[in-house]
Design brief:
This protein has 2 domains: about 170 residues, no CATH class; about 35 residues, no CATH class. Helix content is about 70%, strand content about 0%. The relative contact order is 0.12. The chain contains 11 helices and no strands. It has about 210 residues and is mainly α. The radius of gyration is 22 Å and the shape is globular.
Length: about 210
């Protein structure tokens, strides 16, 4: 399940003896959103700086030429085009690696936040039991406190609030990833049709395509 309060209350009432597992997707998605929040903040600052430089060039009656990095990107382009590489592990980078090195050298705070998101993922990949995961999460909390990144402090507090359900994942590594993936396919299929009018025929097509 996710970290919804209403869903948690419903499951507690209907299945009081069940082990509730917070799906790892929702936990790691929080960390990814925290990284993106920092990237977006820097992008707005780069946009504002470029607007100011343009106004200064206009008042001076000179042609405005934005500063470009050695790969040809401006600061705002670098931040905009780095969105998807921050969702990936470094071993999955291809041509994006050069852009990642540029991004991290110019924006060390993004690099720190990205490293924190990777370390949280390593807890899920490497730990084999709840006790080991609990210790690794404690070390991760310390790293978050040392960096002082506010968005990750919020993520850490959220994990502390739901830590029992998060640690239950390590009982048998139960995950809802297959259902989440199938749900995404259904949404994509529905969007391609610009909505659904005949639900019965829509379900028929789904069974033919995905069953």
């Amino acid at each position: 399940m996710d970290m919804s309060g209403s869903l948690n209350s419903t499951v507690k009432a209907c299945f009081p003896n069940a082990h509730r597992v917070i799906d790892r997707f929702h936990v790691q998605h929080l960390a990814f959103e925290a990284v993106q929040e920092i990237r977006i903040k820097h992008r707005w600052e780069a946009l504002e700086q470029e607007n100011q430089e343009y106004e200064q060039a206009k008042r001076a009656a000179v042609k405005y030429e934005p500063v470009r990095l050695h790969n040809g990107d401006t600061a705002k382009q670098l931040l905009a085009r780095s969105r998807y590489l921050l969702f990936k592990h470094p071993r999955l980078w291809t041509r994006e690696q050069q852009r990642a090195e540029l991004l991290f050298s110019h924006y060390p705070l993004i690099h720190k936040s990205y490293q924190l998101s990777l370390r949280l993922g390593e807890v899920y990949r490497q730990c084999k039991c709840k006790e080991e995961a609990f210790k690794k999460l404690a070390l991760w909390y310390n790293d978050v406190e040392e960096t002082g990144i506010l968005s990750f402090k919020t993520v850490a507090r959220t994990i502390r609030t739901h830590y029992l359900g998060i640690l239950n994942f390590f009982n048998n590594r139960a995950t809802n990833a297959a259902a989440e993936s199938f749900n995404a396919k259904i949404k994509s299929f529905r969007n391609a049709l610009r909505g659904v009018r005949d639900v019965e025929f829509f379900l028929y097509r789904l069974t033919k395509l995905y069953a």
